Amino acid sequence: MRHVMPLFLVMFVANYIDRVNIGFVNAHMQVDLGIGAAAYGLGSGLFFVGYALFEVPSNILLVKYGARAWITRIMFTWGIVAAAMAFTAGERSFYVLRFLLGIAEAGFFPGVVFYFTQWLPQNERGKAVAIFLGGSALASVLSGPISGALLSIRGLGLHGWQWMFLVEGFFSVCLCAVCWFMLKSRIHDAAWLSRDEQDVLDATIKAEQAEREALGTAHMRVTGLLKDPQIVLFCLLYFAIQLTIYAATFWLPTIIRKMGNLTDFQVGLLNAIPWLIAMGAMYCFALLSAKWRHPQFWLALALLIAAGGLFASTSGNPVWSFVAICFSAIGFKAAASLFWPIPQGYLDARVAAGVIALINSIGNLGGFFAPAAFGYLHQHTGSISGGLYGLGVISVMAAGAVFFTKNRRVDRAVRHPIDERRNQAV
């Protein structure tokens, strides 16, 4: 947790910024390249098509080649493509580069979660995933001021938006070198653990794997998982959550610009406010959910809060819409972190790279439909109010569907070496 988690957090921040930074250059690309609202929305969403198509294959290759090599490869390729966004020349190149960026990033999030299953016992993974997911909220806060500041750079015949893509993309390329030296694929390669600690941890992970195999669920095929109504429901719920998150992510800077004659840096600072509020809300919801263990209730409550904010944001007043989005962010960002413990509880012995990738890839298709639909509405009606109403309705429906999910905890039939070692120490 001390040696690797900080690196994963930095990587997630870079990952998130590189995928959502186009939200800050919508107006600039429209002026410089003639990319309209509909094309912007479609291009924003095409990222998630490439991401979904290559997510599961990427994680299969991660298992084959090891986390160190494959996660480093993911970072390098996404950094190169993110930097190449600076040379977008029109709608066609915009579409192609966004699609390629999705392919390049595919497998990162579920790959890291799978990495946890290879290094952490079951009772430690929930905390690790929660910390890692906190990186998305941190990235949302940092992306505005960082991107806004970079947009002010001029020189070498490049516009500010081109410098933003270049700097943020090459940061990820540089970070992959750090990843290569710090990550280890096998427990026995970890120099910070003694030989005894390596043996005990490795034995514990293998004991959990043996338990999964005994239950007959460790190697279920994706087609078999899709026959399970609960897993289909998990995919649909995550899809609904991601719809709301990415609609706000890609269009919030546009809403902020309507508040007045603001500079890019001011837009970036204001853009950070909803996500800063959401970080505190995520922490509070996590404490409440841990104290009163009713995960479905807390997730439903978060979705209803998101819906209320979305409905209120259609008032037509830009300032009030911004305040309402801040309120809505409390709900949909908390919902994103509250969601994962529910399928983890149901899939207790089946949390592996392919399953996590399946839910994540299908859910992330919400990142395609939301910006594309909003772009179409904005170009043809001059407003995104209809899209906000639609997202509010979907959030309410998702809140109701949450109560049809189940938790199916598996009683452990084996004693793990780490547990035995702790008992001996006591």
UniProtKB/TrEMBL annotation:
Domain Major facilitator superfamily (MFS) profile: residue ranges: 4-410
Localization per record: Membrane
Entry keyword annotation includes Endoplasmic reticulum: no
Transmembrane portions of the chain: 35-54, 70-89, 95-116, 128-151, 163-183, 231-252, 272-290, 297-313, 319-340, 352-374, 386-405
InterPro entries: MFS, MFS_dom, MFS_trans_sf
Keywords: Membrane, Transmembrane, Transmembrane helix, Transport
Membrane association type: Multi-pass membrane protein
Name used for this protein in its record: MFS transporter
Organism: Robbsia betulipollinis
